[in-house]
Amino acid sequence: MQYTSQELFVGAIEGVPNCTSDTRELHIWPKFMLMVLLQGAQHFVVDERHFEIDAGTEEASSPVVFMLNVAKDSRLRFFNDSRTPLRKVMISAPLPWLQRLFDTQGEAQKSVLQSFFSQHLAHFSFEPGQHIVQSAQKIMHPPPALEGELSSLYLRAQGLDLMWQSLLTMLADRKEHLPAPTLMSLRYCDRARDFVIGNLDRELTIGLIAREVGCSASTLQRHFKTHFGMTVFDFIRQKRLEAARTALADDGIPISHAAHLAGYNNISSFTTAFRRAYGVTPKQVRV
After folding, report:
1. N or C: less crowded end of the chain, CB within 10 Å?
2. Mind telling me which InterPro entries this protein's record contains (predicted)?
3. Using one digit for the tens of pLDDT, what is the confidence trace for 134-152?
């Protein structure tokens, strides 16, 4: 895929041990790079600084998210050391494009972000939770029914979500720069999100989720929308619809079963919600 220095890039690699066979020194422009490595290893050098990221093998994988700020025109070279097939998502965003992100943050968060993006080759890595892993998998295997501009919009949406969640993780890690209530509520909401994703087949209530993450129901309801832009129940509905879509596209389950999986007793209501979310009907997605 070709792109310019002014565009957001979202892409994926799967099944080959290296992202390129070209081991010559390459020129790269200033940008923010985010890699979600689900399997395999990467070794590269930027301006004589080595970076090595290893997510393990298929039998013993340990996913990792790696973020790198390239603040000036630089030289990049890959070393093809690994023979393990990669499962990798890559996102690149031009630095001027990220200025809009700073403008939406509070002063404490803005200070952390500006510090990171002002340093050439500043980097941060962490072990991702279920939500980030699932978002990466959606980029690697988008719904086959989406084509053309719809497919591009889908990939951009997933890429933006990945970038947002990863930067939130960095903000929480650098907790000395954040007010304690902000950090604590973010941790509660992260736990709640991962609990929901892992328990979509259960009857989920605010009380149950709050008990699992160790906070009150009112605290969870108040802060979840602040951090993630939707209510807890909207998030549950979204994830159940995604599970239904995946089952339709990958397994070809009956639409009535998909409706039940998404939490709907009425196929008509399920179809309406599905079309509103994805722009197509369940029948169009079903293999």
Report:
1. N
2. Homeodomain-like_sf, HTH_AraC, PchR_regulatory_protein, Tscrpt_reg_AraC-type_HTH
3. 889 989 998 887 788 888 8
Distance of alpha carbon 102 from alpha carbon 100, whole angstroms = 5
Inter-CA distances, 230 with 98, 207, 223, 234, Å: 23, 18, 10, 6
pLDDT at 1: 40
C-beta of residue 74 within 8 angstroms of C-beta of residue 47 = yes
E strand or H helix at 181: helix 180-198
Residue 35: strand, helix, or coil? strand
Partners of 241 in beta bridges: none
Q: Taking Cα atoms as reference points, which of 243, 88, 219, 222 lies closest to residue 162?
A: 88
pLDDT averaged over every residue in the chain: 86
Token pair 């890039």 is found at 9
Of 112, 100, 81, 144, the C-alpha closest to 285 is 144
Could you tell me the domains of the chain? 9-176 (2.60.120), 179-285 (1.10.10.60)
